[in-house]
């Protein structure tokens, strides 16, 4: 082999095909407003995580009606197909107020219920009310959860130093340090920036969705 064919260094791209930034989202609670967000994401080619409280899901065997409220359990598999379903506990308590046995029950029972609905291992989570501490993290390590999203924000949220205390880039309506769209544009314009742009929120707070969306970071 000639020297001209030997690279000066081996480079492993951060993302496939030389992409610099991955955009993802995390929405909580499992409400009917998830439907229009999922529909838009499917049209735009975006992926997201939907954190569900299994104890809050309706159990009528029919899709939920109305413009607000929780979805029915029968909708979960089809609605979120192609996206990630993750734990948000059974009843949405602040976990820092519970003892270890109660924490484990809220997490494990939610994970088992969601796995029964989607048919695959559920390993992600988002903390209800953003409440967590070292005690909660220590319990989670025994429950099969491999990461958990907080409500904290960090411009360098990936890779997380502690996957069970994973910050996002911003809340969907955050203005710190600037609005989310401007925040993304600023990061994208930094040519050597590579990372995850991670937005979290609640779909009931999404006021308007654009008719089209294109992103090629």
List the main descriptive attributes of the protein structure presented here.
217 residues; alpha/beta; TIM Barrel; five-stranded parallel sheet; two-stranded parallel sheet; 5 helices; globular; disordered C terminus
Helix-strand blueprint:
Blueprint: E1 21-29, H1 34-44, E2 48-52, H2 76-79, E3 84-87, H3 100-118, H4 134-140, E4 149-153, E5 166-168, E6 170-171, H5 180-188, E7 195-201
Parallel strand pairs: 1-2, 1-7, 2-3, 4-5, 6-7
Helix pairs in contact: 3-4
Estimate what percentage of residues fall within beta strands. 15-25%
Q: What is the level 1 CATH name of the domain at 24-172? A: Alpha Beta
Shape: globular
Structural class call reads alpha/beta
Describe the structure.
The protein is an alpha/beta fold and 217 residues long. It has a domain at 24-172: TIM Barrel. The chain has five helices and seven strands, in the order E-H-E-H-E-H-H-E-E-E-H-E. The strands form two sheets. The chain has a five-stranded parallel sheet with strand order 3-2-1-7-6. It has a two-stranded parallel sheet with strand order 4-5. The chain is globular. The two termini are 36 Å apart. The relative contact order is 0.18.
């Amino acid at each position: 082999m000639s020297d001209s064919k030997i690279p000066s260094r081996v480079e492993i791209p951060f993302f496939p095909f030389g992409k610099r930034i991955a955009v993802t989202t995390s929405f909580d609670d499992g409400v009917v407003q998830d439907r229009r967000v999922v529909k838009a994401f499917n049209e735009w080619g975006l992926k997201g995580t939907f954190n569900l409280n299994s104890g809050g899901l309706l159990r009528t065997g029919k899709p939920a009606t109305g413009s607000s409220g929780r979805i029915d359990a029968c909708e979960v598999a089809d609605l979120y197909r192609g996206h990630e379903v993750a734990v948000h506990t059974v009843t949405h308590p602040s976990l820092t107020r519970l003892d270890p046995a109660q924490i484990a029950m809220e997490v494990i029972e939610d994970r088992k219920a969601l796995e029964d609905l989607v048919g695959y291992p559920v390993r992600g989570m988002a903390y209800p009310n953003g409440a967590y501490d070292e005690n909660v993290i220590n319990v989670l390590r025994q429950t099969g959860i491999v990461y958990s999203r907080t409500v904290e924000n960090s411009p360098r949220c990936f890779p997380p130093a502690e996957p069970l205390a994973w910050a996002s880039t911003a809340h969907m309506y955050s203005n710190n340090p600037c609005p989310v769209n401007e925040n993304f544009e600023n990061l994208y314009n930094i040519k050597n920036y590579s990372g995850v742009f991670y937005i979290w929120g609640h779909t009931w707070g999404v006021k308007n969705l654009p008719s089209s969306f294109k992103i090629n970071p």
